[in-house]
What does this fold into?
Amino acid sequence: MKSMWDFVEIMCPYCGEFQQTDVDISAGSQDYWQDCQVCCCPILFELTVDGEQGFRVIVKRDDD
Ligand SMILES: [Zn+2]
It folds into this structure.
């Protein structure tokens, strides 16, 4: 059984810094907040899981 955690690289919508973060794809599609590792602003993660293999993450600011 493979890990249900995966890594994704995102660009902070506030400061523009790229960073890696882990996502829990076992929980399915979900939206959640996570602070930027660089500027500590709250980033909205929109995680969409497409079956067991694929997923995608969209990041947004809280004022979008
Ligand atoms: Zn940032």
